Amino acid sequence: xxxxxxxxxxxxxxxxxxxxxxxxxxxxxxxxxxxxxxxxxxxxxxxxxxxxxxxxxxxxxxxxxxxxxxxxxxxxxxxxxxxxxxxxxxxxxxxxxxxxxxxxxxxxxxxxxxxxxxxxxxxxxxxxxxxxxxxxxxxxxxxxxxxxxxxxxxxxxxxxxxxxxxxxxxxxxxxxxxxxxxxxxxxxxxxxxxxxxxxxxxxxxxxxxxxxxxxxxxxxxxxxxxxxxxxxxxxxxxxxxxxxxxxxxxxxxxxxxxxxxxxxxxxxxxxxxx
Length: 274
Ligand code: UDP
Hints:
- The chain is of the alpha/beta class.
- The protein has a domain at 33-218.
- Helices cover 54% and strands 14% of the residues.
- The protein contains 14 helices and eight strands.
- The chain has helices at 8-17, 39-52, 63-71, 73-81, 90-98, 109-123, 136-147, 166-175, 189-201, 212-217, 225-230, 233-240, 245-248, 250-273; strands at residues 26-29, 32-35, 56-61, 84-87, 126-131, 152-157, 180-184, 205-208.
- The strands form two sheets. Strands 4-3-8-7-5-6 form a six-stranded parallel sheet, sandwiched between helices. Strands 1-2 form a two-stranded antiparallel ribbon.
- Helix 3 (63-71) packs across helix 14 and helix 8 crosses helix 9.
- The model is unreliable at 1-20 (pLDDT under 50).
- Uridine-5'-diphosphate is lined by residues 131-133, 160-161, 184-187, 210-211, 213-214.
């Protein structure tokens, strides 16, 4: 299911399409840019980023990110400066439809990491897994390697997003000659960490992956597929991790703001039309 091999020509075509910001296809949702990409597009972008060199930040945006960004201008600026903002959250797809610019597909960090590991195995990109509780990145790496023999894990390290640790962590990532760095420190810390450190880490791509390593390592369990398909994965998460309820108030807030935005833009269209 996670094997997306055999799409190389399609992949290189899309990589050109998405290489320049002005050519990006997507939608701005409450001030945060979200790219309209599929898993294949994402892999094409990553290929392009590694080939181009330099440092490219990727974010896995969901409604919680959007609400957090409204209160945190630094976070918002980082998301809007990112080279790729994945639509990781069913709420974003709903918002795209309401705002009249539908997104094609949900692209999650949790599934995305499997796809990325597949790409890395095929291309020989070196993957570094940073963050999560001690031992989790190692277990995630083991499972990824089981699925993709030949995958090169440049390194794993829990560390912490504390500023005092940054220099040492950057040195680890650099010494490991990392191509793609996955950072699991939760938002917005992982995005801020990458904004400060990605360029000096030598990695071509840095992705904030939230709880993805926990899911891959099996320390957290994702909702059954049927719930994901129905768009109620958040409900399952609330049941498994009830302490998230306060954070999840962001969801109704997000929905209300999107509807307001829709009303406003509808009114503007009418006024403009007369
Ligand atoms: N985490 C960490 N160090 C920290 C804070 C968080 O390693 O100081 C990890 C945590 O173990 C988990 C991930 O970051 O693996 C956060 O997952 P979550 O699903 O909460 O991500 P979010 O939804 O906040 O992006």
